[in-house]
């Protein structure tokens, strides 16, 4: 991807590769005429927690913070120690930062109401994504969605503040703890990626205005579940194989999504017999990545509708997810629809 270090963005602001995240956030505040800095501060709070979690993931093997925590979360999944540590770190940063009134987390059964009278924002977060890869030194991540509360400041948090469709997100992003650590986010004005320079403790702009290729040659799906896939998926994957596309599946949504966003590709987690609504969670996994995908010119659907149009009805609800290069997602949907037609004939 050819990077033009001095490419101005929509607001005509020229910022260069190597700009610190802090400076970039300040620049971009001008995208919001009535901005008063709270969202900027919230993004900084998230970046701070990401630096701390990055340190914990890097030394997980040394500091005996690998392995199971000995408890299960509301999804019935065994929590890993790093799931819990990441959850605590982000909770602390979001509550201490002062901009947030409520948090939805994969690791918390219920909404965390921070009783913060001046907090404008609601955050939905997957503190540690790719938990099955924690102990084996494979890329993992954090996923976050930010919404403005609907009810008046200072009033009790209502479900309408929480159960907002993804199209209401004011910002969303992910952190990828991989061979390098990156923070990628959008506020609705394109997608920008920052790489963490550990020795300086700073995120630097490394991937300005990320644009996803319209198509690609990579598909990411857990083929071990092939026998349980919803109708149409096997036909699509057979088509990918016939076209000699490459199968790439890390098993960490953030890492698979990131690769396909940059190189072109599709990630599929369909409905299965065991998970008739798929595995991934709408509020703190699918919505954030769908916002990023669309802002980068890619697509995200549950097989029937745009992920961002889905009206949530429960905190930890799951959704099938087909996300990635536009033409590949369209092709996958064609197979799902075709399978429905042939099922009725
Ligand atoms: O092991 P499976 O069924 O392929 O599922 C892998 C998927 O589950 C996840 O690990 C779910 O996320 P968490 O690790 O946050 O629970 C995704 O990151 C990943 O893409
Ligand atoms: Mg996850
Ligand atoms: Mg998780």
From TrEMBL:
Its EC number is 3.1.3.11. Binds 2 magnesium ions per subunit. Pathway: Carbohydrate biosynthesis. Mg(2+) 2 binds at residues 126, 129, 285. It is found in: Cytoplasm. One of its GO terms (biological process) is fructose 1,6-bisphosphate metabolic process. Belongs to the FBPase class 1 family. Homotetramer. This is Fructose-1,6-bisphosphatase class 1. It comes from Algoriphagus formosus.
């Amino acid at each position: 991807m050819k990077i033009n270090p001095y490419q101005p963005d929509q607001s005509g602001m020229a910022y260069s590769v190597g700009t610190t995240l802090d400076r970039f956030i300040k620049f971009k505040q001008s995208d919001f005429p009535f901005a008063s800095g709270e969202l900027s501060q919230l993004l900084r709070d998230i970046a701070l927690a990401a630096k701390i979690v990055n340190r914990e993931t890097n030394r997980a093997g040394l500091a005996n913070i690998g392995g199971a925590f000995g408890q299960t979360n509301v999804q019935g999944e065994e929590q890993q120690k790093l799931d819990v540590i990441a959850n605590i770190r982000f909770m602390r940063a979001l509550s201490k930062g002062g901009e947030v009134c409520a948090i939805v987390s994969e690791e918390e059964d219920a909404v965390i109401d921070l009783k913060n009278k001046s907090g404008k924002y609601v955050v939905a977060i997957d503190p540690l994504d790719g938990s099955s890869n924690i102990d084996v030194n494979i890329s993992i991540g954090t996923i976050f969605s930010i919404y403005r509360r609907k009810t008046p400041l200072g009033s009790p948090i209502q479900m309408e503040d929480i159960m907002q469709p993804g199209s209401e997100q004011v910002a969303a992003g992910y952190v990828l703890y991989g061979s390098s650590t990156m923070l990628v986010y959008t506020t609705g004005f394109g997608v920008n990626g920052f790489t963490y320079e550990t020795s300086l403790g700073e995120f630097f702009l490394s991937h300005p205005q990320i644009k996803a290729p319209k198509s690609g040659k990579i598909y990411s799906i857990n083929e071990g579940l092939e026998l349980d896939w919803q109708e149409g998926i096997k036909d699509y994957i057979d088509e990918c194989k016939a076209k000699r596309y490459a199968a790439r599946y890390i098993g960490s949504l953030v890492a698979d999504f990131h690769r396909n966003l940059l190189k072109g590709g599709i990630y599929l987690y369909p409905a299965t017999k065991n998970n008739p609504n798929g595995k991934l969670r709408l509020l703190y996994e699918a919505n954030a990545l769908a916002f990023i995908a669309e802002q980068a010119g890619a697509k995200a659907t549950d097989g029937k509708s745009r992920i961002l149009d889905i009206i949530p009805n429960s905190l930890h609800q799951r959704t099938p997810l087909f996300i990635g290069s536009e033409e590949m997602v369209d092709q996958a949907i064609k197979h799902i629809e075709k399978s429905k037609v042939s099922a009725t004939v």
